[in-house]
Structures are given as C-alpha cells and as structure tokens.
C-alpha cells in the first residue's frame, strides 16, 4: 500500500481509504510517513502486507473503538465545560449565554444556516471601538477534529477572564476585534457525535451519488480541485460541485469578502500533527510575503513550546508538508488577508483525532500563546 499508493488497490478505492495524515492518498509521495486507519479483518491483511514489504511501521492505535470510548475522560459533570468536548447543541447554547453575560466584550450574530438546517453562529470578541482591525478565527472545519471547537471556546473564555487583568490580552482586545466561529461544519460535527466519530466532510447530498458530503477545506476558489483534492464524491477530500458549493463555506467566503477592509488575519484551526502552515498549499511557489509569514510562524511556534515543550513544525503548506488545493487559508491570502495561517493542533498520532479530554487544557493554553503572538504582530504591522 505504501510503496505504490496511487496504484494499489486502485486510485478510486485508495481515495476512499481513511488517511489521517496527510489527509488523502493523493498527497503521498514515495518515502513519506503516513497515518491511516484500516477497518476490521482487513487490518490484519494490510499489516501482513507491510511487514512483508519490510517497510518500517508502528501501530499507533490498536483499537480505535476503545480509544473513542476512552476519549471522554473528564470527570466534570456540568453540561458545558471548557475541559470537555461539547456537542453542537451545547456549543450553540453557550454562544448565546456567553454573549448575554458579557455584552461589553462579546456579541453573537447569525452566520448562516447549514445544509441540514442548523444555525451557525459567529462571535465577535473585543472592546467596542471605531476602525478596529480584525482577526478571523474558525474551528470545526473538519467534523472529527474535536479539539478545535474546544479551542475556539477556550479563546473566548480567556478573553473574558483576561480583560482588565492581563495587560497583553487587554491591549489586544482594546485594539482588535476577534471574529470567532466555534464550529463551521455544524452538520458534520453533529454527525461525528451521533453516527461516525471519524466523519470529516459536510453532510450535503451529492446529486445522483450514494456518497455524502464535501470536504470544506477543498471547497474554496484557490486552484480549486487540483492537487490533493478529488472530484469523486466518495473521496474524503471531495472538492464539491463548484467552489463554495456548501452553505457553510459560502457564508465564510461572503463574510471575509464583505469585511476585507478590516480583516487583517485569518487563522483556521485544524488537528492533528502539530504544525503551523501558511500559503501556499496549492503550489510550491513562494508567497509574496513568505519571509514575514515564515519568521512569524517560527517565533509563534517557539512561543507555543515554552509552556509544555510541545514541538511544532512550520512552513508553507505545499513545500514543507504536501500539496492540497482549495483550502481556505490560500483563498483568504489570495483574497487579500495577508496573515493567513492554518494550525494543526495536538498530537502527533498517539491519539490523533481522539485526543483525550484531559489534554484539552494544555493544548488550548499553549495554542493561546501562539495565537496571541500572531495577533500582536498583526496589531503592530498590519
Ligand atoms: Zn482539518
């Protein structure tokens, strides 16, 4: 499987396999390290095949079902908690109460309605002022990346708790607005709670197709549906019928287009693999602002590591990691948002998407350091 990923079993079949890192067989080159999940008895066949080939391999999660059961290891019994994974209804209710309780710092607006009819809410966090620069942060693009909505909630909590007591964060909130979108792909996220913990895409039906959903992070007009994206609706990296074919991605595109004069930064939070990436992912060519984006990424991951020693790699998506077209970070950058970054949070594959709740706090705390560092640079330079 690993030596000839594009020919075995067939490309179409291989595209439907569940690759975790990178997120599709289409992005794998010979010699790459990959994480993927194999189901049931096939796992033994695949293991035998790899053993026979002599390639080095390691089983990170022997029993995914068991890891799912152990993931929710918090003892907290409150309905909503920042140190637990919260389901979509709980997060939506939280967006309402957090805005209601902190009207001078947080406001909630209706972002869009999802394909299945769920509300998508946006929070605006910051002290009111005129002509403020803004940073847009989204979480929950990919349904199974549960630690990412946890981070967006954590950010809002920290902003509220720090305002007036922490000089650095107070300064950021006085001078910047943060748009926080806790869960973009609300339908996929709900489905990952009720039906398939490892679901990735949206839940929109594809015309005359049995397979459901589009990969929202292949659905933007940035070399759309070329490298590392698939035109097959059964693929986990299906690019959709057109750019911004999904209600959720269209709403994000519209919002950024309509607020281009104020939005100076775009941070999209994913997991896992501990990386900080910036444009481009659709090409190996360097972005115009490569040097500045690169040195800011370097200092941000250094800052992140100071808390718990968590090591991040960083660089332009395509060149350092792998080519993938149609991502929101590349699109935002080409649209005019210079400081455009993708975070891939913890871990390196020990738990992968099934990061135990007991790691939410440390993950969010360290990520906050990097995000605040980037925000400070934007405040001083944009
Ligand atoms: Zn992702």
UniProtKB/TrEMBL annotation:
Subcellular localization: Zymogen granule lumen
Residue intervals of the Peptidase M14 domain: 84-378
Pfam assignment, any one: Peptidase_M14
Residues at the catalytic site: 344
Enzyme's top EC category: hydrolase
Catalysis performed (reactions): Preferential release of a C-terminal lysine or arginine amino acid
GO BP annotations, alphabetical order: proteolysis
GO terms of molecular function: metallocarboxypeptidase activity; zinc ion binding
Cofactors required: Zn(2+)
Superkingdom: Eukaryota
Protein's name according to its UniProt entry: Carboxypeptidase B
Organism of provenance: Leptobrachium leishanense
